[in-house]
Each structure stands twice: as structure tokens, then as C-alpha cells.
Amino acid sequence: MTAPRKLVIAIDGPAGSGKSTIAARLAKKLGYTNLESGAMYRALALKAMEQPVSLEDAEALREMAENSVMQLDPSGEGNRVLLDGRDVTQRIREADVTAAASRVSAHPQVRQVLVGRQRQLGADGGVVMEGRDIGTAVFPNADVKVFLDADASVRAERRTLQNGPPSAEEAKRVQAEIAARDERDRTRKASPLAPAADAVILDTTRKSIDEVVAEVEGIVKRVAGE
Ligand code: DC
To answer: Ligand 1 pocket: which of 20, 49, 70, 105 to mutate (most atoms <8 Å of CB)?
Structure first.
């Protein structure tokens, strides 16, 4: 019997659409590697903040990206992230790095370096890669392309609930942060956040995680010919 083909599964969508959770669960079910491409932009943003290098200096950021080692360790529920050997998993999720990552990722020079790394990571298949441009730019020939979306207010709510019940102030801050990031990610010139022409678009606003995972699993099975 021949081994089943190891597919490349691209999951894209805006912040709070459920990408990370869905991608992690799906990868676990399929025995695939789950890779969070956004963690690379986050790690680079953190390094720029620490050096410091201006978040607008595309050339300096490109050089920094080329000279940095960003490792994604998918052994847990999400990715453990190492930047030049240092564990930055928690730090890169904080609000200041989140905002900086969106700015760093707008530069085509930076994207060129990180997209190249992402292609290497997924070259052998058997991966669920999540991000903003996986189906459009990183793996335009991915076997399965899913674009997850949800109403902005629901996405903001999901984000705040990740850290327990929020104060009204916190909820407002996250809503504003998501709106600003959406705007930047969708309107940038280089690989803006948008569904690939051949992506399946799933609106997760009123769906549970299990429902979405089951739907995506159904798509994967159809493609795999099972
Ligand atoms: O998925 P995330 O929230 O960790 O992504 C952080 C930022 O990185 C996000 O604002 C947009 C950017 N990003 C990107 O431009 N392309 C990707 N494939 C993944 C993330």
C-alpha cells in the first residue's frame, strides 16, 4: 500500500477568526505539523524593538530577518517560538509586539525573506500552515485553502476572552487594536490579507470550533480522495 500523500493545507484569515485554534486541532487530528507563520513576523518585530531598528526601515529589517534564526517548534498546542535560540513564545503575544508585527509585515523586503523560510518549512508537505497569505503567496499551489472570517465584534470578543473576562476598557482597547490591524493587513500593497480565488471561505461567527474543524476535515478528506 502506498502511503497517503502528505498535503499542504493553507489556513488564512484575520485576527480572531479562529485560525490558530483550528489549525492546531486539525494538524493534531491529521498527524500533520502545525506552523504559525505570524510568529515569524512577531519574532522579527520583537528583535527590531529590542535593538532598536525602526519599524519603517525596510532595508534594515530585511537584513535583520536574513541574519536571524526563527524556529517554530510545533510540539505543543501552539508553536513554541525561538528567536536566535531564545524562547520568546509568551513575549511575542503581547500587545506592543502584536502591533509592531503588523507594521513589520507590511514591507515586501521582509516578506520576501520570511516567505522563503515558510516555503522551506512546508516543502515536504504534511503541514497545516496558518497566516494571511499562505494560500495566495506562500503556497499558491496548496492542496487545501481555507479562508476563515468572522464579524469584527466577535473576533474582538474571542481575543479578549482568551485572557479571562475583560474590563470594559480592555474590551474597547482590543476592539480598536483588531480594527487597526485589520485595516493595515488588508490594505498593505504586499500580499494583503485576502482569500485566494480558489479558497473555501468559512464564516466562523456563529460556529463552534468543533464545527469548523469538522468542515475543514471534510474538505481535506475530499481532496485526499478518501
Ligand atoms: O497571525 P498573527 O496574529 O500572529 O500575525 C501577526 C502579524 O503578522 C499580522 O498582523 C499580520 C502578519 N502576518 C502576515 O502578514 N502574513 C502572515 N502569513 C502571517 C502574519
So the answer is: 105
pTM, two decimals, is: 0.94
Residue 211, pLDDT above cutoff 90: yes
CA 181, chain centre distance (Å):
13
- Under the banding of pLDDT at 50, 70 and 90, the label for residue 167 is confident
Task: Tell me how many domains the chain contains.
Answer: 1
Tell me whether residue 32 is in a domain.
yes
Distances (CA, A) of 206 to 101, 106, 178, 202: 29, 31, 19, 11
CATH number at residue 46: 3.40.50.300
Of the segments 163-167, 215-219, 221-225, which one has the largest average pLDDT value?
215-219
